[in-house]
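Regression test case RT-17, inverse folding.

Input:
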């Protein structure tokens, strides 16, 4: 008898997977989907989403309050002297200097905003 070569397509169409093989393949596909989704798809957990939203909110508030800080600097009667002092101070101390001057204390607040003070110092020095 002649033996014919069976193609892959024919073998695939004749294959009958078991229930166990089907279930494990579904599990494998689900795991692969999750790995791809979290690593390349941009999926995040609920905790990460909350953290990202909080950070985004803080950044938005700082960007909105920084111009008020700059206006307070411009309204200071001793502006020129204080700006000279500010430029002589190292970069990492400039935020503290802005806080001490009261420029980063927003109306209605008791304490100055640290992130606003740092952003204000950077904006002033541009």
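Golden output:
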């Amino acid at each position: 008898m002649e033996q014919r070569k069976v193609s892959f397509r024919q073998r695939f169409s004749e294959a009958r997977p078991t229930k166990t093989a089907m279930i494990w393949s579904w599990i494998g596909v689900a795991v692969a989907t999750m790995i791809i989704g979290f690593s390349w798809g941009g999926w995040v957990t609920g905790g990460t989403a909350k953290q990202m939203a909080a950070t985004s909110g803080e950044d938005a508030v700082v960007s909105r309050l920084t111009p008020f800080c700059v206006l307070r600097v411009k309204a200071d009667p001793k502006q020129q002297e204080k700006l000279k002092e500010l430029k002589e101070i190292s970069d990492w101390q400039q935020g503290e200097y802005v806080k001490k001057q009261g420029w980063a204390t927003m109306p209605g607040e008791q304490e100055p905003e640290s992130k606003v003070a740092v952003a204000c110092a950077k904006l002033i020095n541009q």
